[in-house]
Design brief:
With about 450 residues, the protein is α+β, with helices and mostly antiparallel strands. The protein has helices at about 30-60, 60-80, 85-100, 260-270, 300-315, 350-355, 370-380, 395-400, 440-449; strands spanning about 5-15, 20-30, 110-115, 120, 125-135, 145-150, 155-160, 165-175, 180-185, 185-190, 200-205, 210-215, 235-240, 245-250, 270-280, 285-290, 320-325, 340-345, 385-390, 410-415, 425, 430-435.
């Protein structure tokens, strides 16, 4: 008996707004249809097995796998050699597994809320959080463990047995010893048996962030050494249109008649126009060195971040236009051919400190000289620049970084050397401020500016 494969093709015509759309449908019959159905059934079976295996792998702890192995080996040995001890071990392992299963029955009916008093603190402080857990189900919730990932650590909270609509409140304290961004979450409630053989987890995907700001110190106003002019600081550059009057010159074709000085024109008999001194707003740049080879210790780098943050916060409070830059990540094999500069947000002191919280030192960054060159390209017309680095940099490197800026820009290099005596040294290209601790920065700023 031979079974044939048939293919049926049908078409339907649909009229839509004067257009005819023809759709073709192909239907396999006979052996081809059975093969397709078999493939679909096989794919569904494989997917079901995969999902089942994933569920088992997530539920069974290492102790559970050990019991399964004991049961399997005991059964094999008992059948092969007839050892009573092997059968006892196999049966005992299976009984333990069966006794642990009831602890997993039921659904998770928890509502979890973690509320922090504040999500921004200074390094060395402590963050307090209020943890609220409710049983929103209609049955009693068995004791469980709530795991809260906090940064690189894990906080475990044991939940008691909660009746229906019961509540549990607890206060957590998170230490923010170092500057950085602490990730809190996702939270997971795990329920299992007392022996730790089986477990069942339920995860809340919400993730919260705590910004640990660097320590800062108050500094003298950055207006020191600059002209206090609401319209900006005047320069020696002569332009045809500005606010600071300089002199009068002869008219040149192309000059605007708005700048003609009519009294001088009447006296001299020829057209005379005004000239002005260019005015610039006080614009401050802070360039932070992220090269780890320029710092003796990690604490020295943290002091540099605090110095740069203190300068930036004071400039923002003074209402100055502020630019804060640092090197971006550059792969070691692409160093010299690839450049990356990151600009930190400066809309407010809070935004600046948030950006400072995420900075990390590395060897795969640009040198301070290249950061200075890119800073002056990205932000022209600067008034004053602060280069913040560590104790391992020499004066020659700082001078090469300073000459990247125009000659009318005041350049200050803040060299952080933990434990050193604070000094001020003036060179032709820059003024070098050496600080031994963070609180020296204010005194050095007064002397340097």
């Amino acid at each position: 008996m031979t079974e044939h494969t048939q293919t049926r093709t049908s078409h339907t015509a649909t009229f839509t707004r004067g257009a005819t759309v023809t759709r073709y449908a192909t239907e396999h019959t006979g052996m081809s249809a059975r093969v397709d159905a078999g493939r679909r059934a096989a794919n569904q079976a494989v997917q079901a097995l995969r999902h089942g295996w994933e569920a088992v792998a997530e539920t069974v702890n290492p102790a559970g796998w050990l019991l399964l192995a004991i049961a399997a080996v005991g059964a094999v040995v008992g059948v092969a050699w007839g050892w009573t001890e092997a059968w006892v071990a196999a049966v005992g392992a299976l009984l333990l597994l069966l006794l642990c299963i009831p602890f997993l029955l039921g659904r998770h009916s928890y509502a979890v809320a973690l509320q922090f008093e504040k999500d921004r603190v200074v390094a060395g402080a402590e963050v307090v959080a209020d943890l609220s857990i409710s049983n929103v189900g209609h049955r009693v919730a068995l004791p469980a463990v709530l795991d809260i990932p906090v940064g690189q650590g894990l906080v475990e909270t044991h939940l008691p047995l909660l009746r229906a609509q019961g509540h549990h409140h607890e206060q957590l304290r998170v230490a923010a010893a170092k500057r950085g961004i602490i990730t809190v979450g996702p939270m997971t409630i795990g329920r299992g048996d007392p022996l730790g053989v089986l477990k069942r987890d339920h995860t809340w995907p919400e993730v919260q962030y705590i910004y640990v700001h660097p320590q800062t110190v108050p500094l003298p106003t950055t207006s020191a050494g600059l002209l206090r002019d609401l319209e900006g600081a005047t320069t020696k550059t002569i332009v045809d249109s500005d606010l600071s009057f300089h002199a009068i010159r002869d008219y040149v074709p192309g000059d605007s008649f708005r700048h003609v000085h009519w009294k001088s024109t009447a006296k001299l008999g020829t057209l005379q126009v005004r000239q002005y001194e260019e005015t610039r707003r006080s614009r401050i740049a802070v360039a932070l060195d992220l090269d780890s080879t320029m710092y003796a210790t990690e604490d020295e780098f943290e002091m540099a971040v605090s110095c740069a943050s203190s300068i930036g916060v004071q400039a923002a409070r003074d209402g100055r236009e502020l630019v804060v830059t640092a090197s971006g990540s550059v792969p070691r094999h692409a160093r010299g051919s690839m450049f990356s500069l990151q600009s930190l947000p400066t809309l407010s002191p809070r935004a600046l400190l948030d950006g400072m919280s995420g900075l990390e030192w590395s060897e795969d960054v640009m040198a301070l000289e290249q950061v200075a060159r890119m800073t002056t390209q990205e932000s022209p017309q600067l008034s004053i620049v602060f280069l913040v680095t560590g104790s391992q940099v020499d004066l020659a490197h700082l001078r090469r970084a300073a000459i990247s800026f125009p000659s009318d820009v005041s350049v200050f290099a803040v060299r952080c050397a933990a434990g050193s005596e604070p000094t001020v040294r003036t060179a032709r290209e820059l003024t070098l401020l050496t600080v031994g601790m963070l609180h020296d920065l204010g005194h050095m700023m007064l002397r340097g500016l």
